């Protein structure tokens, strides 16, 4: 039998994260690669109680097919939670519950753009967005990021240029808070400019905010969706970082006409999101456990963030620059020397450490001397040892 | 803000099932519309015990991100289960665990075909396949179904014609056992012909088998994947009908090169399937509960199947023909009179009964005088009363 594969999947590159996770799961390897939360943060006792309660009270609904856009009481709880935590005002009718926010990204690429269309991302940007948009056959134009997130002064020029070329972008995708992979946060002034540009050129703005609640230092910056003029922003959120990732729950907030299109594509993708996970999340929010849990997570992750930043200061200051993020899950390291972090991976694995090379977060092969380091999964000791092993690897490869 | 939607979603029609479910959820309506299993069949006690066990023993893994293709011990259990129940021999490396088999259908449409390509389905066929393939921009060519499933003698002619037109089909999609929507089963002779034609013209064969285990009468017919020459058949299965649908678990078996492509698209779609659901399924199979549960389900559904068939005989024999399926979840009714079952829906709802009109299962607007009736969800009394209400509706609309 001959299988002829579609052009779309032939265009996609195998994810480096997948390969890395495989390598990184070997015994003895310290993985700074994946984007996994620490199992220490899983609220096992509370979830066990909730699961028992759900099975006792709502098993007929929690084990049955649910509505395509999500179970209504869950959508209502999400709407209340977002008002409390992010100052977002939205009706439950504007929320779709997804199988993780990765699915939200895929849906967006299907609903707002056709294969061959152009979208704007940050440069570098989240590897899962690259994967979702590539699968939809989209071209990505990256706007470089500095310590204050996307350089919005370059955005307007890029949009003008693309319009002149007949390639008006279909949307702008940003992770403004504790960006993945860099960890940088965009100040409120740039967020205002983003809203203005989006309105001026009629290009929808998509805000991905998986880490917003994980702030370890400094004052919160309002999310764009909550700001004046941000009502039309499409907003992606997730339970993976404030509950657990294994229950695969994310959500997208969008204006009415977009919701109708989400409904259609979600029906085709998987009919509906896991009902049981949704009922668990319902209780998790309603009982207020989520708010206590986030505080615990922050205590755990603050120490780890300090550990990796201090280890970088002690071991890497002389040969690299790195972000010192106020929150989130990642540090972005750019090595001064002419090191290719992708080529260096086999040596790193040999030395017992894994990371994701900068190239994975671009579509144009740049960011060769950078790497993304995760600090939420490993222990403080592993983070410290991992940085030493990275330094050793750089020394050996130079 | 102006949202420009993609051509793909504009090409998709809102699902009639979704609308119907909405209407059918009004109080007093007897729904023969959806494809839902009965909550009576949910193994609540066993699942509650399993969930507690999983949270105690494996919460660190069950709440964490899993591998993209599925958690290995679960894939291994599925492989063992399929050998036992369907006589299918496959390695766990050839299994991907999906968020329901709907996701398997969507993946297929992405991996094996490009937008604009043609695929072959049964006529009528499963509404979710129409939805998934439409979302991928595929053209569907339907081969009519009779009491013995797809008329395979028409298949070869169709393939030859399509090849001449430069539209060689990318795959053939069939539900050979207790077909959705008709309930018909394809005998082994036709299955052999399907394998031959697939090989002769190098067109991959896709076998969807959600209902295979739900046989109430007669001797099992082997699934195509288990037959001589069927090793390359792509096979879709689900836990929705033998465990519960709310946990959203399905799986696809495919040859090695297809698995690589599945891995890529699954990564883009939602990273991985719900880990918790997978660990629950692992215990559910390993403890052998699935086999006992299927026997219980069959007892419950056999009575319901008899109830709806008898009610049809008593109330509808004079004006319609209908299938008398040996298993599955659906009866297909074709009204003799020149009735348009889609136009009749509002009157049916007014009379307190819901069904899915035949048109939903085609892409060419045929099957206008047919309807699909589900018999697994309602009680025996509801099924009997529902058929009376349908007869009343036909009388009033004639």
TrEMBL record, chains A, B:
Pfam families: Aminotran_1_2 (PF00155)
Superkingdom of source: Archaea
InterPro entries in the cross-refs: Aminotransferase_I/II_large, Class-I_PLP-dep_aminotransf, PyrdxlP-dep_Trfase, PyrdxlP-dep_Trfase_major, PyrdxlP-dep_Trfase_small
Alphabetical list of Gene3D superfamilies matching this protein: Aspartate Aminotransferase, domain 1 (3.90.1150.10), Type I PLP-dependent aspartate aminotransferase-like (Major domain) (3.40.640.10)
Cofactor(s) it depends on: pyridoxal 5'-phosphate
Coiled coil: none
SUPFAM superfamilies: PLP-dependent transferases
Entry keyword Phosphoprotein: no
The UniProt record lists the keyword Transferase: yes
GO biological process, one term: alpha-amino acid metabolic process
Keywords attached to this entry: Aminotransferase, Pyridoxal phosphate, Transferase
Molecular-function GO term, any one: pyridoxal phosphate binding
Residue ranges of every copy of the Aminotransferase class I/classII large domain listed in the record: 57-390
Family statement drawn from the similarity comment of this UniProt entry: Belongs to the class-I pyridoxal-phosphate-dependent aminotransferase family.
PANTHER family noted in UniProt: AMINOTRANSFERASE, KYNURENINE_ALPHA-AMINOADIPATE AMINOTRANSFERASE, MITOCHONDRIAL
Subunit structure of this chain's protein: Homodimer.
Name of the protein: 2-aminoadipate transaminase
Organism: Cuniculiplasma divulgatum
């Amino acid at each position: 039998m001959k299988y002829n594969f579609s052009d779309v999947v032939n265009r996609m590159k195998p994810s480096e994260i997948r390969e890395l996770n495989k390598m990184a799961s070997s015994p003895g390897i310290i993985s700074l690669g994946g984007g996994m939360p620490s199992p220490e943060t899983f609220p096992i006792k509370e979830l066990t109680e909730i699961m028992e309660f759900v099975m006792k009270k709502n098993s007929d609904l929690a084990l049955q097919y649910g509505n395509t856009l999500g179970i209504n009481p869950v959508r209502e709880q999400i709407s209340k939670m977002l008002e409390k935590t992010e100052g977002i005002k939205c009706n439950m009718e504007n929320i779709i519950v997804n199988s993780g926010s990765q699915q939200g990204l895929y849906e967006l690429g299907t609903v707002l753009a056709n294969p061959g269309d152009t979208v704007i991302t940050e440069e570098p940007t989240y590897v899962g967005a690259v994967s979702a948009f590539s699968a939809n056959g989209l071209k990505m134009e990256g706007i470089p990021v500095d310590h204050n997130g996307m350089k919005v002064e370059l955005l307007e020029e890029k949009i003008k240029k693309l319009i002149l070329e007949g390639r008006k972008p279909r949307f702008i995708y940003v992770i403004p808070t504790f960006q993945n992979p860099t960890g940088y946060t965009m100040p409120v002034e740039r967020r205002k400019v983003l809203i203005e540009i989006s309105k001026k050129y009629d290009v929808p703005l998509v805000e991905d905010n998986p880490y917003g609640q994980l702030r370890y230092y400094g004052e919160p910056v309002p999310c764009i969706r909550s700001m004046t003029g941000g009502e039309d922003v499409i907003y992606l959120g997730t339970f993976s970082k404030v509950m657990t990732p294994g229950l695969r729950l994310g959500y997208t907030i969008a204006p009415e006409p977009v919701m109708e299109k989400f409904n259609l594509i979600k029906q085709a993708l998987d009919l509906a999101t896991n009902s049981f996970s949704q009922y668990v999340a319902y209780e998790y929010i309603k009982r207020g456990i989520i708010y206590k849990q986030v505080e615990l997570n922050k205590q755990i992750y603050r120490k780890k963030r300090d550990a990796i930043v201090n280890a970088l200061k002690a071991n890497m200051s002389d040969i690299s620059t790195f972000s010192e993020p106020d929150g989130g899950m990642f540090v972005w390291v750019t090595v001064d020397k002419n090191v290719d972090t992708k080529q260096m991976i086999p040596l790193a694995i040999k030395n017992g450490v894994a990371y994701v090379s900068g190239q994975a977060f671009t579509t144009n092969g740049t960011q060769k001397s950078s790497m993304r380091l995760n600090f939420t999964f490993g222990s403080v000791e592993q983070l410290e040892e991992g940085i030493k092993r990275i330094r050793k690897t750089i020394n050996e490869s130079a």
